[in-house]
């Protein structure tokens, strides 16, 4: 019984660790793109595409884990977690869908390596 409770607790801790790591990784990619522009890099296409893709894909994973942690409450209409679950979904589509960001990142990488 205790073992089961401890195991569930650790699973929640594992989710929290994954969530905060994904958020930090997205933030760091975003700061890198902004920093590259600040220091005068003319083209930050790859940096911006990587930041957008990582941030929006992470947001989806993080809110999905949050719903799981909240259990039934997480799917109660207009609960903040439920509202965020719905609102986050479209981020992976507009301002360049994830698949399109991948095409951009790969194209930029190949262009850079050909120089
Ligand atoms: C909430 C919301 C707000 C929006 N706000 C605006 C706005 O303010 N201004 C504006 O102009 N537009 C806006 N849009 C439109 C948005 O930019 C488009 O929905 C987006 O560009 C995707 O285009 P689409 O819906 O025609 O899908 P499609 O282009 O038909 O894409 C459908 C799927 O195919 C994939 N796909 C497309 N091309 C490729 C490819 N070459 N290779 C691999 N996969 C591909 C996509 O990734 C996606 O998964 C908004 C959309 C949403 C959902």
Walk me through the topology.
Blueprint: H1 2-38, H2 45-70, H3 80-89, H4 98-114
Bound molecules: flavin-adenine dinucleotide.
Flavin-adenine dinucleotide (FAD) is lined by residues 90, 93-94, 97, 99-100, 103.
Spatial extent as radius of gyration: 18 Å
Which runs of at least 5 residues are low in confidence (pLDDT < 50)?
A: none
Small-molecule components bound: flavin-adenine dinucleotide
CATH topology (level 3) name:
Butyryl-CoA Dehydrogenase, subunit A, domain 3
When the domains are counted, the total is 1
CATH architecture name: Up-down Bundle
**Which structural class should the secondary elements be placed in?**
mainly alpha
Largest β sheet strand count, sense and barrel closure: none
Task: Provide the residue-averaged pLDDT.
Answer: 94
CATH class: Mainly Alpha
The rough form would be described as elongated
State the CATH superfamily name.
Butyryl-CoA Dehydrogenase, subunit A, domain 3
Cα distance, first to last residue? 61 Å
Secondary-structure element sequence? HHHH
Account of the protein in words:
The protein is an all-alpha fold. It has a single domain (2-114), classed as Butyryl-CoA Dehydrogenase, subunit A, domain 3 (Up-down Bundle), CATH 1.20.140.10. The chain is built from four helices and no strands. The longest helix is centred in the first third of the chain and has 37 residues, at 2-38. It is elongated. The N and C termini lie far apart (61 Å). The mean pLDDT is 94. Residues 90, 93-94, 97, 99-100, 103 line the site of flavin-adenine dinucleotide.
């Amino acid at each position: 019984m205790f073992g089961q409770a401890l195991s569930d607790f650790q699973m929640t801790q594992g989710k929290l660790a994954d969530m905060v790591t994904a958020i930090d990784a997205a933030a760091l990619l975003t700061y890198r793109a902004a920093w590259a522009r600040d220091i005068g890099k003319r083209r930050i296409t790859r940096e911006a595409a990587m930041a957008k893709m990582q941030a929006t894909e992470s947001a989806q994973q993080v809110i999905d884990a949050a719903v799981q942690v909240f259990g039934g409450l997480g799917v109660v209409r207009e609960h903040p977690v439920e509202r965020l679950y719905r609102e986050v979904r479209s981020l992976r589509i507009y301002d360049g869908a994830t698949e399109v960001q991948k095409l951009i990142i790969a194209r930029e990488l190949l262009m850079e390596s050909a120089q």
